[in-house]
Batch of 3 targets.
Target 1
Amino acid sequence: MAVPKVTDQVISAEDNGFRGSGIYDIALVWKSAGRDYKVVPNDFCFGSHPSFFVVTGPNQGGKTTFARSVGQAVYFSLMGLPANAALFITPLFKGISTHFEAEEKIQSNSGKLKEEIDRLAPMMKQDNRCNFVILNELFTTATTNDALVMGKKVMAHFLGMDCYGIYVTHIQELAEETENIISLVAQVEDNSPDMERTYRIVHMEAQGYGYTEPLVRKFQLRYEDIIKKVGD
C-alpha cells in the first residue's frame, strides 16, 4: 500500500500526470488469499489534462478488474487512506461516479438498454464536475453503431465536466485516440493457442478483433466440427 500524492485538480507536467504503478484490485487479492493464484498489478498514466481511458480486449482479460482497482485507489485517497498501489498520484477529485452492468429485471418489461439509460441519466444530470468516472460495458444490447454514438456522447459529457474516467467496452471504435481519449488493451499471450490472458493492461491501439477463435475451438463450433456433428 502506498500513501497517495494528491495534487491540484490541474496536474502539472512535472508530476507526469494522474498515474499509478503496481496497482491491484483489493477484492481480487482477498478472494485469492490462500490459493495458488498470482494477482497481476498494472501501471497507468493519464496525462496532464482530463481524459478517458477506453479499455478494450478479450473477455476475462482483466478490463473490469483494472477499472475497479483504479476506482478503489481514488476512493481510498479521498478518505485519506493508503492506496492499493506501489505509487499513486491523483488529483483531488470531488467524488466518484460509476455505472456497472446490472442484471436485467424481467418484471420491469422495459428492456436492458432502457434500464441502463434510466440509471445513467440521473448520473449525467448531477453536478459531477471534477469527479472520477467509471463506465463498464455500456449499451451492450444496442447496435454497434448506436453504442458507438451514445458512448462518444457520454464521454464528451463527462469530459466537459472536467472528469477523468475509464470506459470498459468491446466497441473498438470508441478507443480511437484523441487529445482526451487514451486506448488501453488487455493483453493475451501471442504464442498461446488459447490466447491465454496475461491480465496486463497496456497503452496501445485497439486490436480490432474479437478474440473468438479460442472459444469457437473450445466449444467445437468450427465448420468441420459442426459438419461432423451433423453427420453423426
Target 2
Amino acid sequence: MDQSDNKRTIKSINPLNGQLNREHDMMTDQEVNALVERAGQAFTGWKEVSFEKRADLFRKVAAILDRRKEELARLCSIEMGKVLNQGVGEIEVCMAIFKYYAENGAKFLADKSLPTPVGTAFISYEPIGVILSIQPWNFPFYQVSRSAAPHIMAGNTYVLKHSSNVPQCAAAMEEIFAEAGAPEGVFTNLFISGAKASGLIANEHIRGVCFTGSEAAGSAVAAEAAKVVKKTVLELGGSDPCIVLEDADPDIAVRMAALGRIQNAGQICTSPKRIIIMESIAEQFIEKAKQIYQDLKVGDPQETDVQLGPVVSVEARDQLLDQVNQTV
C-alpha cells in the first residue's frame, strides 16, 4: 500500500445533513493480512467447537442485539438514513436469525445417511475455512447477520468487508461478537476499499466468498474467485414488478404497493420498481396512491413518526433527480 493509501479514511456521513459522524482509518495491507491470518488460525479451533457452544454464542449475540436495538437502529439512521422503527425492526429480525440457527443449526448440519445396495454411505457437512463476506449498506445489520450466522454455525470463521457508507454498523457487529465471547478471529471486520476486497479473494486463507450487491460488482467478484477456483454465493440486483389485478382489494393493494415503494427510502431490491395495473382500476388506484404520498411524514429518520427519511447520499439523490427528469 502506498503512502496516500495509508492516509485514507472511511467516513461515516449523516445523509440527513451531510455532517461527519466519524472517520475510520483504512487498514494497511499488513494489518489486513495479519487479521485474515488470525481468522485462519482461529478456524483450526472453531471448527472443533461443539454445536451447543456455537449455539450458546448465538444466544448471547441475540441478547446483546436485543439490549442495544434502539442504539443500533439509530446507527442505521445516522449512517444510511433508515427510519428508526424500520431500524428497530431490522435488529429484531437479526435477533431471530441468530436464535433460529442456535435452535436448528445442529439439526441442519447433522450427518445424513444415504441408501445404498452395498455397504453404508452418508453425507457429512464440514466447514471449509475463512469466508470473506462483502455486504451492502441498505440493511447494515441484517445483511451481515444472515450471512454470518450460517457460516459461523457451520464452523467457518468470518471476515467482513462492509459498505463504506456504514462503518460504525460494521464495527458494532464485531464488538457484539466479541462481547458475546467469540474467540478472536471468528468474526473480523475490515476497513478496506472494494478494490482491496477483490484482491483479498486470492489470499490463501480465504476459502469462499459471499457477496450482495450490483450485477457489475458481483461479476467482478465471481471473476476473481474463478481465477483461484474458490466458492462464491452471489445475491445480485432485482427489478420487481407489482401486478394488481381486478379482483384485488384496492385499499390493501394500493397501501402495500405505495408503502412498499418507500421502505428504506425505496432503496431495497424487493421494493416494487414498477406497478402494473388493470386499466379498469387504474384511475382509482392512482388517486389512492397520491393521497398516501401526500400524507407521508418526511423528515429526520430518528423521529418516531417519520415514515420517509433521506436517501443514502448526495450522489444517490442526484441520480434519482436525473431519473425523474429523464422520465418527465
Target 3
Amino acid sequence: MIGKQKSYNDLFFDLFVFIFGIVILIITAYPLYFIIIASFSDSIAVNSGKVWLLPSNITFEGYIKVFQDERIWRGYRNTILYTISGTFISLLFTLPAAYSLSRKDLPGRKIIMMYFIFTMFFSGGLIPTYLTVRQFGLANTFWVLIIPFSVSAYNLIIARTFFSSTIPVELFEAATIDGCGNTRFFVLIVLPLSKAIIAVIGLYYAVGQWNQFFLSLIYVRKESLVPLQMVLRNLLLQNQLISGVYNEEDQRIGEIMRYSFIIVSTVPIMFFYPLIQKYFTKGVMIGSIKG
C-alpha cells in the first residue's frame, strides 16, 4: 500500500521545523564550538575577533600549561572522587526512599511525601544550614559535599513515579508467596528492572556533583579538598595566573588557559553521556508521562 502523499501545508511545516531546529542547534552548539577553536588559537587573535569559524595561529600552549598545573590535577582527583562517591550515596538514599513511597501499603506515605515536597519550595536558609553543617563537624571535610545534600526531592519524585507505574503489585505478591522479603525483592527484582531510572537519576546526580562549586565555595577552605569547578571559577573570575607574575606573557597564557581548561573540565561528562543515552531517554519519558 502506497502511503498518502503529504500536502503542501505538511511539507511547509516540516521545512519550517527543520530550519527552526537547525537554527536552534547552531545557537546552542556554537558557543561550545567557539570555545573549542579558541582553545587552539592564539589569545591575541581571539581578543581581536579573528576567531569565529576556524582557529587562528594554532597553538597547543594552553593545553600544555593546563596539564602542567598541579591545581588542575588535584581538582580532577577531588571531582572524580566527589562524583563517584556522591552519586553512589545519593542513589543509595534516593532509590530505597522512592520505592518505599511508591508502595501503597506504607503507613503515612502521603504525609512523608509532603515533607519532601515542602523542601522543594522552602529551606532553612544559608546561614542556618551552614551552622547545622558546622555543628555536625562536616565543614571543611570531604563528606560535606556528599552527605548533607545527597537527596534531591525532584529526583525522588521522578523515581517514585517510575516505581509506582512500572513495578506491579502482583509481582511483589508473587515474590512474597515464594518467601521473598521487602529488602530482597527490592535488591533482586526491583533494581534490575529499573536500569532506565537508575541511569537517569545517576546522570542527574553525577552532573550535579561534577559541576558543583557553590557548596565548596561555602563549606571548603582546604586547598586539598577543592574540586575542579572551584579551580575553574578561580581561574575565570579571579584571573589567577600560573606563575603569579603579572606581565603580558602570563596574561596571554592565562587567556589561552581559560578556554583550554573549560574543554578539559567538560570532556569527561560529554563522553559519559552517550553510554547511557538510551536509558536516559526511556527513563525521562516514563517519569514524565506516567504519574
